[in-house]
Amino acid sequence: SAPGRFADYFVICGLDTETGLEPDELSGENFEQTPLRRTFKSKVLARYPENVEWNPFDQDAVGMLCMPKGLAFKTQEDCREPQFHSFIITREDGSRTFGFSLTFFEEVTSKQICSAMQTLYHMHNAEYDILHTAPSNDKESCSSTGDCNGTSVSKLQRFNSYDISRDTLYVSKCICLITPMSFMKACKKVLEQLHQAVTSPQPPPLPLESYIYNILYEVPLPPAGRSLKFSGVYGPIICQRPSTSELPLFDFPVKEVFELLGVENVVQLFTCALLEFQILLYSQ
């Protein structure tokens, strides 16, 4: 049986520089997109511990759910704000384990990856040139889409492009906690503080490994009906577990549901639930 730890795994997902840029087959073929808009395969780069007896590590599921859209590349011109999301892995016996991921962007230091991205752009622009450039400079042969004299090609090269001599390339990376209970707010704070420690010019009070070890081995699950306070990198983190007589743990802000769906849709959704209608939520 599980010993009641707050978290079972700390996981890092991202770009494997040894295998390089692999198209993400799960996202479908997107070669018509510019290379910076394509999705590439992400890998589980590291996890700690290697395995726990009561919660076997599912590398394929964790890797896919940590970065469901695969790797994303950006340049210094793009927005690179960190994004947080959660997921659930349900096993065949109905048991669940919860995942909380913080995805951020870091600079690509591998010259091979930067060169590969530049090569993809050269290939993409050459193919676009062949397909879209008018066969002659005769204006009557130009289409209404503005392909005359390679206008569309030049726009393509300026928009969302990458020049290895001018641009800085960034790639998405993810840090994740796998936990037995859905303490979303506490896990989000843990990950945000770890990310802040990595990006801060000043080193944290202790090595990062100390904080990761603490969250995995020294922070217990709070007993039912009790709250727990433990130390993060830069401040205390608090979580509360409902008692057996209360509603089950639901640590997600209801405000986000209204922001995403709107009041009328939430009312309609609630009405459908009360009437026991089948409900399908479709999303990217």
Automatic annotation (TrEMBL):
Q: Which InterPro entries match?
A: cDENN_dom, DEN5A/B, DENN_C, Tripartite_DENN, uDENN_dom
Origin superkingdom: Eukaryota
Location of the UDENN domain: 24-284
Q: What PROSITE patterns would the database entry show? A: DENN (PS50211)
Question: Per its record, what are the GO molecular function terms?
Answer: guanyl-nucleotide exchange factor activity; small GTPase binding
Q: Which UniProt keywords apply?
A: Guanine-nucleotide releasing factor
Any Gene Ontology CC annotation = trans-Golgi network
Biological processes, Gene Ontology terms: retrograde transport, endosome to Golgi
Q: Does the keyword Lipoprotein apply?
A: no
Which PANTHER family is this protein grouped with? DENN DOMAIN-CONTAINING PROTEIN 5A, PINSTRIPE, ISOFORM A
According to UniProt, the name of this protein is: DEN5A protein
| Species | Elachura formosa (spotted wren-babbler)
Q: Which gene encodes it?
A: Dennd5a_0
